[in-house]
Amino acid sequence: MSNDTFDADGITLEQVREYVWEIPQEGDMRVPARVLASEALLEEIKEDKTLEQITNTTHLPGITTNAICMPDGHQGYGFPVGGVGALDAENGCISPGAVGYDINCGVRMMRTNLTYDELKGQEAELVDSLFANIPSGLGGGGVVEAGVDTVDEILARGVDWALENGHAVEDDLLHCEDEGMREGAKPEKVSQKAKDRGKNQIGSLGSGNHFLEVQRVTDIFDPEVGEAFGLEEDQIVVLIHCGSRGLGHQTCNDYLRKIEQQHQGLLDQLPDKELAAAPAGSQLAEDYYGAMNAAINFAWVNRQLIMHRTRQVFERVFDRSWESMEMDLLYDVAHNIAKKEMHEVDGEERELYVHRKGATRAFPAGHPEVPKAYRDVGQPVIIPGSMGAGNYVLRGGENSMDLTFGSTAHGAGRLMSRTQAKNEFWGGDVQDELEEQEQIYVKAQSGATVAEEAPGVYKDVDEVVRVSDELGIGDKVARTFPVCNIKG
């Protein structure tokens, strides 16, 4: 292997510059594919079908510049997790597979003025109370049970509905991507089956890699931006990671089936049926975009209700109001989404469907879509690691618009499948080790979930974030470390 190429079992990547590798355009590829990674991360990325999948995405009509794989990339459904594809909104397409089943899976971080010392000794009570009060796991059960009219309102209005119904304060909306409401949401384009699946799950974590974690801030890398984000060392913060539950999953499923029926011609041109896409301007593309935006609103309300319930739990455990503990939203950001955005391509501004699947929007300082509170410093980016590795808060980097359509990684990225994880780890042992060695208290619906999410299942989040920081797409601001964690 020479210094400027990397051979990944038959796929040769050429180094464009440090941490930027390209799979050259050939055959039916419309653009090259790029992987943003160190050689250490490439060694892991090449182990599954990620490189094949990111190459396949370059066949999508209207794809511009490059298909991009983030440093946390791993094999997904058709489109790799950690993938970014910007497709022309006029003559390209929109792909439900490139958004994923969990529409607007994302993360939300809430600050507090509590210090780690003030919380110590109450971890067990806190984790038990959170687990008892925040619905989790596969089935139904949410913070609110809703009728169909309510579900429609949530789909149309997002966090604005939560504000009106006493589950949010004005400040929450100001610290959420799109102020917690996607324009262009069309509840009528979400099927009755999807609404039925969602109506009992509003305010619930679900299962898999979703969690609520109480954390302490261990490092501040950029004091000025840290101050703008309201973060300081030893502070307690809360991270919530979940999405649109059964409603989003059903919506993705519904539109994949419709595409198979109506756009077989486009499907036949693609190397992988799981990339199923609807041509821009078609009725189906418009319908899916409206349904997806509605599911995005649903997910924001879901995380908002979990946060509201978390505030109530903290009030009981610490015997004071959440306002006096300054439990304010730092930011909420989506990482499974396709958005119409304006970007410069070949010197001209174009409207694109920017698909981010397991990738986080990372707009730099000064970008008009960054909330006013953070416009001077750049958009907050929240990157969860694993239960034993800690998490990062970044800010959108100066190079993100040029390199990645304003995106960076979304987490550590899996190394091992869930099945393999369950064969290698025993949930009870993982729980015991985390508590004994790291003072991390974990509570879950089943040992299997803990095994599937064991720290050893993930890539090195420090390395993923280092690459993002070195490339200037997402700059390090702070690091946090788990204190208690609940999962489905």
UniProtKB/TrEMBL annotation:
UniProt-annotated stretches for the region Disordered: 181-203
Keyword Manganese: yes
EC number in record: 6.5.1.-
Annotated cofactor note: Binds 2 manganese ions per subunit.
Record's compositionally biased regions (Basic and acidic residues): 181-199
Single GO term (MF): GTP binding
Listed cofactors: Mn(2+)
Binding site for Mn(2+) 1: 102, 210
InterPro entries: RtcB, RtcB-like_sf
Residues binding Mn(2+) 2: 241, 335
UniProt keyword list: GTP-binding, Ligase, Manganese, Metal-binding, Nucleotide-binding
Alphabetized Pfam families for the sequence: RtcB
Catalytic site positions: 410 (gmp-histidine intermediate)
Catalytic reaction(s) noted: a 3'-end 3'-phospho-ribonucleotide-RNA + a 5'-end dephospho-ribonucleoside-RNA + GTP = a ribonucleotidyl-ribonucleotide-RNA + GMP + diphosphate; a 3'-end 2',3'-cyclophospho-ribonucleotide-RNA + a 5'-end dephospho-ribonucleoside-RNA + GTP + H2O = a ribonucleotidyl-ribonucleotide-RNA + GMP + diphosphate + H(+)
GO biological process: tRNA splicing, via endonucleolytic cleavage and ligation
Similarity section: Belongs to the RtcB family.
Main function: Essential for tRNA splicing and maturation. Acts by directly joining spliced tRNA halves to mature-sized tRNAs. Joins RNA with 2',3'-cyclic-phosphate or 3'-phosphate ends to RNA with 5'-hydroxy ends.
Subunit structure: Monomer.
Protein name from the UniProt record: tRNA-splicing ligase RtcB
